[in-house]
Write a structure and sequence with these properties.
The protein has 128 residues and is α+β, with helices and mostly antiparallel strands. The protein has a single domain, classed as Ribosomal Protein S5, domain 2 (2-Layer Sandwich). It is 34% helix and 23% strand. It contains 4 helices and 5 strands. It has a 5-stranded mixed beta sheet. A hairpin with a 2-residue loop joins strand 1 and strand 2. Helix 2 packs parallel to helix 3.
């Protein structure tokens, strides 16, 4: 089997995911999953599509992550892995879609407007 690649995004994070047959290794930015994401919750988020399909030990995954924070990065990796698994086997798409792993979360940070302290916040009104 050749390498299957896909992209996952969330907020400002971008994950380029490369999946090939293997023994279940997940390498992120040349580091193991456990060292890159010490939190077990974030590790769980990254592995969710694999666990849903029961193929966690069948593929080696290499991920290049950049931008964003650790939560956004983990969810970008999850989307990238889900998209790659669908490229490998299109029959898995309904199972992943029902869990929400195939949906790109479109929420982005709203820009700061000129003359304001933040995007929506106004300075305190003074009548006199």
């Amino acid at each position: 089997m050749e390498v299957v690649n896909s992209i996952g995004r969330r907020k400002a994070a971008v994950a380029r995911v490369y999946v090939k047959e293997g023994t279940g290794n997940i390498v992120i930015n040349k580091r193991e999953l456990g060292t890159y994401f010490p939190s077990s919750i974030l590790q769980y988020i990254v592995k969710q599509p694999l666990n849903k399909l029961g193929v966690a030990e069948q593929y080696d995954i290499k991920i290049n992550l950049c931008g964003g924070g650790y939560k956004g990065q983990s969810e970008a990796a999850r989307l990238g892995i889900a998209r790659a698994l669908v490229k490998i086997n299109p029959g898995d798409k309904p199972a992943l879609k029902s869990e929400g792993f195939m949906t790109r979360d479109p929420r982005e940070v709203e820009r700061k407007k000129p003359g304001r302290p933040k995007a929506r916040k106004r300075f305190q009104f003074s009548k006199r």
